[in-house]
């Protein structure tokens, strides 16, 4: 007989994490644990207010699936039981962890994937003053890839300062819907001049049509505009890349399907994350095996991670040990 338990956990952020929509000082996560006999699997979801989620709503969604889970429902049928989001992500990843442990197979074998290899993750520079962002970039200038959060104003100045501070790093710009169509040409020009590798979600999701005619010499990546595999065909012609996040897809099961759909359409794949612990990052690490870009630095932004956590060597993320997940 299966048993489902739910917990809320809090992880302080090292300093403050700021994007165009606001700031936060802690990561609040919901953990689902599914036990069967002596074996237990865990999954972590991050409620995201921008998508109408809260801790209470995610807990309520997980509770709504209690009978389904405790009566033996599987991760494939789960997609017909819960909508995509943090609740389904926590349960999907817990079911995968449970199955991997119960069958004593590693998660890669379970999912029919090659053996897991280390992944190079981007490191995030939070939105701040020009001086503060330049200082953060300078201290991280040995990292191969920096993901730079920008807002609506002062983007060019921030980028110039960051490029000077980290001349050798590959830069991804993430505007989190903070630009307008009127700003886009000038910011695209700045990104070209400063050697930016990719621009993530520059415009609000309801302005996607602008990108059909816009010149995109620097690839543009969908984030808030892309949640599941059902969105992929609509992105073609508007975007060049897609950011796959498990809290959007509703778990690793759908994330792998979304990556396959993106590959079929010739889109660049990034696997990203919310600010969360290594328990959320471990399944994202599995998805990142098939991505051209990985942004799974969530634990590096925390003042403390869970133990055991993922092992990082600079920007290199190593495969998770089974006692963490998988």
UniProtKB/TrEMBL annotation:
Cofactor notes: Binds 1 Mg(2+) ion per subunit.
- What is the taxonomic lineage of the source species? Bacteria, Pseudomonadati, Pseudomonadota, Alphaproteobacteria, Hyphomicrobiales
What SUPFAM superfamilies does the record point to? Enolase C-terminal domain-like, Enolase N-terminal domain-like
Descriptive protein name: Dipeptide epimerase
Please name the catalytic residues of this protein. Answer: 149 (proton acceptor), 245 (proton acceptor)
User: NCBIfam families given for it?
Assistant: racemase_DgcA (NF042940)
Q: Which GO terms describe its molecular function?
A: metal ion binding; racemase and epimerase activity, acting on amino acids and derivatives
Annotated EC: 5.1.1.-
Q: Which residue numbers delimit the Mandelate racemase/muconate lactonizing enzyme C-terminal domain?
A: 130-221
Q: Which domain of life is it from?
A: Bacteria
Family named by the database record: Belongs to the mandelate racemase/muconate lactonizing enzyme family.
Q: InterPro entries, alphabetically?
A: DgoD-like, Dipeptide_epimerase, Enolase-like_C_sf, Enolase-like_N, Enolase_C-like, Mandelate_racemase_C, Mandelate_racemase_N_dom
Q: Which Pfam families match?
A: MR_MLE_C (PF13378), MR_MLE_N (PF02746)
Give the keywords, sorted: Isomerase, Magnesium, Metal-binding
User: Which residues does the annotation say bind Mg(2+)?
Assistant: 174, 200, 223
Q: Which organism was this protein described from?
A: Pleomorphomonas diazotrophica
Names of the cofactor(s): Mg(2+)
Q: Which PANTHER family match?
A: D-GALACTONATE DEHYDRATASE-RELATED, ENOLASE SUPERFAMILY MEMBER DDB_G0284701
């Amino acid at each position: 007989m299966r048993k489902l338990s739910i917990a809320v956990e809090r992880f302080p952020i090292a300093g403050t994490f700021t994007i165009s929509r606001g700031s936060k000082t802690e990561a609040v996560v919901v953990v689902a644990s599914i036990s069967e006999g002596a074996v237990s699997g865990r999954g972590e979801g991050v409620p995201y207010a921008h998508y109408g989620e809260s801790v209470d709503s995610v807990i309520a969604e997980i509770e709504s699936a209690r009978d389904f889970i405790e009566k033996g429902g599987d991760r494939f049928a789960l997609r017909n039981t819960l909508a995509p989001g943090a609740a389904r992500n926590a349960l999907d990843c817990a079911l995968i962890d449970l199955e991997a442990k119960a069958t004593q197979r590693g998660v890669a074998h379970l999912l029919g994937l090659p053996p897991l290899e280390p992944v190079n993750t981007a490191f995030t520079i939070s939105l701040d003053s020009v001086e503060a962002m330049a200082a953060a970039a300078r201290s991280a200038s040995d990292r191969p890839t920096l993901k730079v959060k920008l807002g609506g104003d002062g983007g060019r100045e921030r980028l110039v300062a960051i490029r000077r501070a980290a001349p050798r790093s590959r830069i991804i710009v993430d505007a989190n819907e903070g630009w307008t169509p009127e700003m886009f040409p000038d910011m695209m020009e700045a990104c070209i001049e400063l050697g930016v590798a990719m621009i993530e979600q520059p415009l609000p999701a309801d302005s996607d049509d602008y990108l059909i005619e816009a010149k995109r010499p620097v690839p543009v990546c969908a984030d808030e505009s892309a949640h599941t595999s059902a969105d992929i065909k609509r992105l073609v012609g508007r975007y060049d890349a897609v950011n796959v996040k498990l809290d959007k897809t509703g778990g690793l099961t759908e994330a792998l399907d979304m990556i396959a759909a993106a590959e079929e359409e010739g889109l660049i794949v990034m696997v990203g994350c919310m600010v969360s612990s290594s328990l959320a990052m471990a399944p994202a690490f599995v998805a990142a095996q098939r991505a051209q870009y990985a942004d799974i630095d969530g634990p590096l932004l925390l003042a403390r991670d869970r133990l055991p956590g993922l092992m990082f060597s600079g920007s290199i993320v190593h495969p998770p040990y089974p006692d963490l997940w998988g």
